Amino acid sequence: xxxxxxxxxxxxxxxxxxxxxxxxxxxxxxxxxxxxxxxxxxxxxxxxxxxxxxxxxxxxxxxxxxxxxxxxxxxxxxxxxxxxxxxxxxxxxxxxxxxxxxxxxxxxxxxxxxxxxxxxxxxxxxxxxxxxxxxxxxxxxxxxxxxxxxxxxxxxxxxxxxxxxxxxxxxxxxxxxxxxxxxxxxxxxxxxxxxxxxxxxxxxxxxxxxxxxxxxxxxxxxxxxxxxxxxxxxxxxxxxxxxxxxxxxxxxxxxxxxxxxxxxxxxxxxxxxxxxxxxxxxxxxxxxxxxxxxxxxxxxxxxxxxxxxxxxxxxxxxxxxxxxxxxxxxxxxxxxxxxxxxxxxxxxxxxxxxxxxxxxxxxxxxxxxxxxxxxxxxxxxxxxxxxxxxxxxxxxxxxxxxxxxxxxxxxxxxxxxxxxxxxx
Length: 424
What we know:
The protein is of the alpha/beta class. The chain has one domain: Spore Coat Polysaccharide Biosynthesis Protein SpsA, Chain A (Alpha-Beta Complex). It has 14 helices and 14 strands. Helix 3 links the parallel strand 1 (73-79) and strand 2. The longest helix has 20 residues, at 16-35. It is found in: Membrane. Keywords: Glycoprotein, Glycosyltransferase, Membrane, Transferase.
C-alpha cells in the first residue's frame, strides 16, 4: 500500500503550484474590484443615471416643428345625444386646415348620429382634402360629475399623439378641449397669429389650491361612477366611508376647459414618473374630477408647475356664488363676451340667435361654411363657399379678434399676473 500512498501524494503536489497561482490571482482581482472603481463598474455611492428607469423615460423633444413659426392646435370637441348638428357647427366655426380635430359624441348618442356626422364632414371638399378631422367611432359614456369626462379627454389626447395613417398626430403644439355648447369669439387666423408669438410650453389652465368647501363636499367623499361600467347614464352613488385629503400631492381645482401644451399632454398620457397615474386613480372617485385632475397634475410636477397661465380662455357667466352650471348666453351677453377679449365662450343653446350674430359680425362666416381665413382659395361668386378649396395654409389674415386676444394674453403674461398667479 505504501507505494500507492507515495504516488498519490506525488500527484497531489503537482497541482499545488497552479492552485496557489490561481488563488493569488483571484485574491488580487477581488482586491482590485473592491478598492478601484473601474469605468464599467459604477461605484455604489454614485450610480450611473442609466441604471434608473426614470432617466430612460422622458417626453419626446418637440424638434419636428422647431423651425415652424406657426403653431398647430389639436381640438377635442365633445357632445352627447342630439348634439351632432351643434358639433358640426362648432367644428366649421373652428376649422383651419393646419389644425387637428377629434369629435366625440358620447355613447348616449346613437351610432347613426356618429356615422351621419362623419359622412357629412367627409363630403366637405376642404375637410376631405386636409384629412384633419376624425369622429370617435367607439364612443365613451360621459358623465360630468364622475371621472368619465377625464377618461374621454385622455382617450382623445392619446389618439392625437399617436396619429393615424401616417398623419403625424403628434405634430401639434396645444390641446384645447371644448363642448358642443362652446363657440369661438375669434377666427383661427386670429388665434394662430397670437399664439405664434408665445412660448409653446405655456399651459392655459384656471387653477387654485384654495379648494374651500370642495374639500368636504368633493375631496373627502368617495363616489362610484356607473358610467365606467354601464351602458346607460346614471347618477354617481356615494360610499358611506370618507377619506382624508392626500399628503403625497396637493389638490388643485379650477375650470374644466383649458389649453394644454403638447409636453404636458404627453406627460399626462405616458406618466413616466407615475404622478399622472396616481392622481388619476385618486380622481376616479372624486366629484367633478374634470375640475381638478389636470390642475393637480400640472401643479405637482416640478417641470410644469411654472408653465401655467391662470385662465381658461373662456367667457362664462356665473351666478354669485357660482352654481353647478353657468348661465346660457344670449344676444344680451354679446357685448360682455367681446369685451372680455376671450377667444371662446359658453354655454349656448343650439342655434341660439346669438350664434348667428357671432357668425355675421365676428367670424364673417356663411351658414354651414368654415370661418374664412387666408387659407381659403375658392371663389365667392354666386354665394359660393370661398373655403371649399385650400390654398396657402400658412397665410394668415388676422383681424380685430387678434387685437382683442393679444390684449388678453399680454395682460395674463404681465408681471402682475403671470408668476404671482401660478401654482402655490
